[in-house]
Inverse folding.
């Protein structure tokens, strides 16, 4: 019995109750448990919710974040209130009723086991500004940087991926130049607070901006890296974190990195990206306005740049003898086909294209004139979203007909009429920039060998021909990496590249 009793006593000495008998140790353990529980239960928000933010006016407002599973979270703002419970994964989301436009700062308050206050919030229109190098170029590197250097506007705000920033001379230099000029024009015309959410990454292909769901129709793309772009990577790192933040629409400037063998895929990828983003946001067919790539390459060479191009000295297979083909040609880039792929997205509702082909600089992938890019994007929004009565696009190809050895090309969106023009980037450079002849057109017979065409403006169309093509069958305009065409409407907007034929590269 004595042995048995000693065993029981020994066991008792090592029970948790015995260990916790020490008051200081017990208090420490209780504190540790409470600390761990507090850390696990902390309510958090995505970075897009922060001081100086702009909320979208006139629509229901999703607010979301994370918390401990089952934790009750409440959100209040400007007299609105909503409450929810975090799901088993710790995710929570509430929807506030619409707010009216307001320049008066208010706070957004989130309460759970902790409290978050977001200060200096105003209500206006929010736009997503997305794309690669040309969209990423900061205001400080644009040719019109001085125009933003002195501007203070508390109702113009940018989200840079980490925080919201109010527009002042001290911080505007880092803003996307295209986004800045777009937003500045909207502020001036609408008088609304404007917020820009910047999502940009240099040298990135369109597939990196698409969700895995959108790319599931092309399994081969999901398994390979192209030009250092990993499929879906930027969608996951830049786009998904701001979905479903309520906004007005998207401006998009991307495509430089889809040159070469990827160029012909753009016509099916960009429309799918647009549809996929709209599905993820769940706001319906919000406006999606994109930029047709600025000119890049050489001003010399054939009137129609063929896709089948090799290294120096390769024969220009689809060019006639009089087509200005040089003995040395650049590697194929396929920029005309990327631009055509962009234009194919215009079949989707609420889309628009700002043409920048005339704003390029030879052999400069990132030309500095971002003022006119932003301005042309803003024209689309001012007309189609905000209802201003203005012309927002240049002469757009409507059709053609053969008249003997000539081709008559008809256009829509002629505005005040067709005219010969120059790039606004070249204005003020003197009379050497002006031209008395129509440039950029090429015609071909049934053999599709292309020759430069000359012609004249007649009413809402142009009449073009070439001495080398007696029986024309097709016409193209500005079908080059660096276009030299000079057809505009009198509102100063250029005609986008087009072609009447349906020939596809092999």
């Amino acid at each position: 019995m004595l042995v048995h009793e000693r065993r029981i006593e020994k066991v008792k000495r090592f029970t948790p109750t015995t260990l916790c008998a020490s008051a200081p140790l017990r208090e420490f353990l209780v504190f540790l448990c409470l600390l761990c529980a507090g850390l696990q239960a902390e309510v958090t928000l995505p970075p897009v919710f922060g001081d100086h933010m702009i909320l979208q006016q006139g629509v229901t407002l999703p607010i979301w974040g994370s918390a401990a599973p089952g934790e009750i979270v409440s959100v209040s703002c400007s007299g609105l209130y909503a409450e929810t419970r975090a799901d088993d994964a710790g995710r929570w989301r509430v929807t506030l009723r619409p707010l009216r436009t307001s320049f008066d700062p208010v706070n957004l308050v989130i309460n759970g086991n902790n409290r978050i206050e977001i200060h200096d919030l105003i209500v206006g229109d929010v736009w997503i500004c997305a794309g690669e190098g040309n969209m990423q170029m900061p205001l400080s590197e644009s040719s019109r940087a001085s125009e933003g250097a002195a501007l203070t506007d508390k109702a113009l705000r940018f989200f840079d991926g980490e925080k919201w920033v109010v527009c002042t001379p001290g911080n505007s230099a880092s803003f996307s130049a295209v986004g800045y000029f777009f937003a500045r024009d909207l502020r001036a015309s609408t008088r609304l607070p404007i917020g820009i959410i910047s999502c940009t990454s240099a040298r990135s292909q369109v597939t990196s901006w698409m969700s895995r769901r959108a790319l599931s129709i092309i399994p081969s793309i999901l398994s390979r890296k192209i030009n250092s772009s990993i499929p879906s990577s930027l969608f996951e790192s830049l786009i998904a974190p701001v979905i479903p933040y309520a906004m007005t629409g998207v401006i998009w400037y991307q495509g430089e990195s889809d040159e070469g063998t990827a160029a012909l895929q753009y016509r099916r990828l960009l429309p799918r990206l647009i549809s996929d983003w709209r599905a993820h946001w769940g706001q319906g067919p919000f406006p999606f306005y994109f930029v047709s790539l600025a000119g890049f390459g050489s001003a010399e060479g054939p009137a129609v740049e063929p896709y089948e191009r090799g290294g120096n000295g390769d024969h220009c297979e689809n060019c006639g003898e009089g087509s200005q083909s040089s003995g040395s040609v650049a590697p194929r880039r396929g920029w005309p086909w990327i631009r055509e792929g962009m234009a194919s997205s215009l079949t989707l509702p609420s889309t628009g294209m700002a043409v920048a082909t005339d704003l390029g600089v030879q052999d400069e992938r990132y030309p500095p004139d971002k003022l006119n890019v932003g301005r042309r994007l803003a024209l689309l929004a001012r007309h189609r979203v905000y209802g201003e009565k203005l012309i927002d696009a240049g002469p757009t190809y409507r059709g053609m007909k053969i008249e003997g050895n000539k081709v008559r090309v008809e256009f829509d969106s002629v505005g005040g009429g067709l005219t010969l023009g120059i790039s606004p980037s070249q204005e003020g450079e003197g009379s050497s920039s002006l031209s008395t002849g129509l440039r950029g057109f090429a015609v071909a017979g049934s053999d599709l060998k292309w020759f430069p065409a000359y012609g004249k403006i007649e009413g809402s169309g142009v009449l073009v021909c070439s001495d080398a093509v007696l029986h024309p069958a097709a016409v193209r305009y500005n079908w080059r990496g660096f276009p030299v065409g000079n057809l505009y409407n009198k509102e100063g907007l250029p005609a986008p590249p087009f072609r009447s034929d349906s020939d596809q590269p092999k």
About this structure: Residues 1-21, 29-35, 309-330 have pLDDT under 50 and may be disordered. The domain at 132-293+333-384 is CATH 3.40.50.1110 (Rossmann fold). The two ends are 98 Å apart (CA to CA). The longest strand covers residues 115-131.
